[in-house]
Amino acid sequence: MGNEARSHRTLRVGEQVRHALSDILMRGEVHDPVLSGATVTVTEVRMAPDLRTATAFVKPLLGRDEAVVLKALRTNTAYLQSEVARRVQLKYAAKLRFLLDESFDEGGKIDALLRAPAVARDLGED
To answer: Which pTM was predicted?
Structure first.
């Protein structure tokens, strides 16, 4: 399989895993008080080239209790892996890793920087 076909497959499988994870979390299928009380968005899932590892980037609604939500996801990894494996038919069940999606925070920092008086002046916005 060529690199292009392989990368297309990793993107497609990553999206399938993201969709399955989102569905499981949205339906409250994880019996965990933190996760059943939180709205968690799975913003992206990056698959390893061999499809054996999936890194899920997550963001709790309004960025609340990020550390607590991340800990709850990691505590329930075995359950989430088995549920994802049931829904996304792969040769091997992908090992899940959870990381916070910091891209929203970065966007806010960039907006704030662009509005800073010194930067606005340097950009020539009179």
So the answer is: 0.78
